[in-house]
From TrEMBL:
Pathway: Lipid metabolism; fatty acid biosynthesis. It is an enzyme of class 1 (oxidoreductase). Keywords: Fatty acid biosynthesis, Fatty acid metabolism, Lipid biosynthesis, Lipid metabolism, NADP, Oxidoreductase. InterPro entries: 3oxo_ACP_reduc, KR_dom, NAD(P)-bd_dom_sf, Sc_DH/Rdtase_CS, SDR_fam. One of its GO terms (biological process) is fatty acid biosynthetic process. Residues 5-186 form the Ketoreductase domain. Homotetramer. GO terms for molecular function: 3-oxoacyl-[acyl-carrier-protein] reductase (NADPH) activity; NAD binding; quinone binding. This is 3-oxoacyl-[acyl-carrier-protein] reductase. SMART domains: PKS_KR. Belongs to the short-chain dehydrogenases/reductases (SDR) family. Pfam families: adh_short_C2 (PF13561).
Length: 247
C-alpha cells in the first residue's frame, strides 16, 4: 500500500510509533525515524525494520528544537531525492499531576514536546510536500484532547491543540494536494500502561464499548489507511480509535 513512498515518523523507536514504522515498512515504505531513545534501542529498532527490505534512516534528535525538523528536511533532500510522502507526528510525553500541584515547567514541557514539536515538523516537512504538491500528514492526538481528563491539563491541552492545528493545516494545505488528519487513540496497551495491574486494566475496559484495551496495531492500521492512497479524499479529520470509549 505504500510501495516506494517515504515516511518520517517521530518517536518511532518504541510503542505505537514503532508499530507504525513496522506496518509502513511491511507495506513498502522507506522510513526516517526521529527519536531521542538510547543508541542501543535505536539500533535494535533499525535492525528489525531493515529486515522488511526497505530503507531505514535513524536520526537522534529532540523535536522541541526547531533545528531538528530542519535537519530532517535536509536528510530528505540529500538522501531521499528531495521526496517525502508521509509525516507522522507521534512523539509525545506525559507528566500527569493535579493542576493545583502542577509546576509551570511541568505544563510547558508537555506542550513543548507534544504540540510545539509537531508544529516544527509539520512546517518543515510540509514545505517539501508543497513543492511536489502531494503528501499526507498524520498527527497523534488523544481522546484526552477531545474530552479532557483529570490530572492531565497539560497533556489534554497539548492534544487538543493538535486537533486545532490539524484542522487549520488541512485548510491551508489542501489546495496544494496535501492531506492533514489526526488519530485520537483511546486506552492502548503500551509500555506506559504496562505498569498497571490486571485489575486496573479490567476496570478501564469496563468503560469501553468493546470491553477491551486497544493494541498498537489498531492505531498503526488507521495510520496506514491515512498514509495510503485509500484516503486520497480524506482530510481535516480526527479519527478516534478508542473502542467506543468516548462515543
Amino acid at each position: 500500500m505504500l510501495q516506494g513512498k517515504t515516511a518520517v515518523i517521530t518517536g518511532g523507536v518504541r510503542g505505537i510509533g514503532k508499530c507504525i514504522a513496522e506496518t509502513f515498512c511491511k507495506n513498502g515504505a522507506n522510513v526516517i525515524i526521529c527519536d531521542i531513545s538510547s543508541p542501543e534501542a535505536a539500533a535494535k529498532t533499525e535492525e528489525e525494520l531493515k529486515a522488511y527490505g526497505t530503507r531505514v534512516r535513524m536520526y537522534n534528535g529532540d523535536i522541541t528544537d526547531p533545528q531538528t525538523a530542519e535537519n530532517i528536511a535536509q536528510i530528505i533532500k540529500d538522501e531521499f531525492d528531495k521526496k517525502v510522502d508521509i509525516l507522522v507526528n507521534n512523539a509525545g510525553i506525559t507528566n500527569d499531576k493535579l493542576m493545583i500541584k502542577m509546576k509551570p515547567e511541568e505544563f510547558t514541557k508537555v506542550i513543548d514536546v507534544n504540540l510545539n514539536g509537531a508544529f516544527y515538523m509539520t512546517k518543515a516537512i510540509s514545505a517539501l510536500m508543497i513543492k511536489q504538491r502531494s503528501g499526507s500528514i498524520i498527527s497523534m492526538s488523544s481522546v484526552s484532547g477531545l474530552k479532557g481528563n483529570p490530572a492531565q491539563v497539560n497533556y489534554s491541552a497539548s492534544k487538543a491543540g493538535l486537533v486545532g492545528m490539524t484542522l487549520s493545516a488541512a485548510k491551508e494545505l489542501g489546495r496544494r494536494g496535501i492531506r492533514v488528519n489526526g488519530i485520537a487513540p483511546g486506552f492502548v496497551e503500551t509500555d506506559m500502561t504496562a505498569v498497571l495491574t490486571d485489575e486496573q486494566k479490567s476496570h478501564a475496559a469496563q468503560n469501553i464499548s468493546m470491553q477491551r484495551l486497544g493494541q498498537p496495531q489498531d492505531i498503526a492500521n488507521t495510520a496506514l489507511y491515512l498514509a495510503s492512497d485509500l484516503s486520497t479524499y480524506v482530510t481535516g479529520q480526527i479519527i478516534a480509535v478508542d473502542g467506543g470509549l468516548i462515543m
